[in-house]
Specification:
This is Fasciclin. It holds the Pfam family Fasciclin. One of its GO terms (molecular function) is cell adhesion molecule binding. One of its GO terms (biological process) is cell adhesion. It is a single chain. This protein has 9 helices and 7 strands. The chain is α+β, with helices and mostly antiparallel strands. It has 2 domains: about 150 residues, Roll (FAS1 domain); about 30 residues, no CATH class. The N and C termini lie far apart (about 110 Å).
Length: about 260
């Protein structure tokens, strides 16, 4: 009888030991599996693709990069801030931001881009006769015309900017060439172009553009006056057409995309 009791006790101890070992093994397995599961879940982390900022093109881009070592960061700035960060465009920035005349600040319009901006260098402005620059500073309408004539709607790099299009001022602008050899209105050379801003492409040019020297429009529109004259020739003399009012200029912010 004592032998049977001893044997029963041994079996009970073995059973409890086996259960304890099994439970411990199960807990260890769970402990090991949890970090593995967390790691497996965290591994497929998606990283945003890196957008490469292309080099600007033009004969003086080396000087531009030296003066703006962090030029790639301009791609994260609206065009007003980007122009302000380019030392060689400081006079043009003053012209568009109220620095030359407090009544002329078109930066808010430009920052509603996309725009292509032809920014004359400081040397280009220095080449203007002093009297002409003084006249621009004193005439808000003329300065506004000048500012908007250097801008057209679009977001074009050096390989795509060529062509003739209307500017925000209304008159057209003609761009010839591509890459590092671009001419504007057959008079101004791009010294460094395709500089990326958040909502614009900036082209530094060596000459201030004159709206009065704009090329003839590629597709002239029939004015209201011409229409009235045509109607007058087709109606009896007693029924002369009333002279139509002059067309009002297209507001800069609503000018068509070229």
């Amino acid at each position: 009888m004592p032998c049977d009791v001893n044997r029963a006790e041994e079996l009970s101890v073995k059973t409890r030991t086996s259960r304890t070992i099994g439970a411990a093994a199960g807990i260890a397995a769970i402990a090991l599996s949890v970090p593995l599961a967390v790691t497996a879940y965290a591994d497929p982390e998606e990283t945003a693709p890196v957008v490469e900022i292309p080099d600007p093109e033009g004969p003086d881009c080396g000087a531009f990069k030296e003066s703006v070592p962090n030029w790639k960061s301009l791609a994260d700035l609206p065009v007003g801030q980007a122009l302000a960060a380019i030392p060689e465009a400081s006079t043009f920035y003053a012209a568009v931001s109220g620095g030359l005349n407090p009544a002329v600040n078109v930066v808010p319009v430009l920052e509603n881009g996309p725009y292509v901006v032809f920014a004359p260098t400081n040397e280009a402005f220095a080449a203007l006769p002093a009297a002409q620059l003084d006249a621009l500073k004193a005439d808000p309408a003329a300065l506004t015309d000048l500012d908007y004539y250097h801008v057209f709607l679009g977001l074009l790099g050096p390989k795509d900017v060529k062509g003739q299009r209307p500017t925000q001022q209304g008159a057209e602008i003609k761009v010839s060439g591509e890459g590092g050899d671009i001419t504007v209105n057959e008079s101004a050379k791009v010294v460094c172009g395709g500089i990326q801003a958040e909502n614009a492409r900036i082209y530094l040019i060596d000459t201030v553009l004159d709206p009065a020297g704009a090329p003839d429009a590629l597709t002239p529109t029939t004015s209201a006056t011409e229409t009235a004259e045509t109607a007058e020739t087709e109606t009896p003399a007693a029924e002369t057409a009333e002279p139509s009012p002059e067309q009002t200029p297209i507001p800069a912010a609503d000018a068509p995309i070229g």
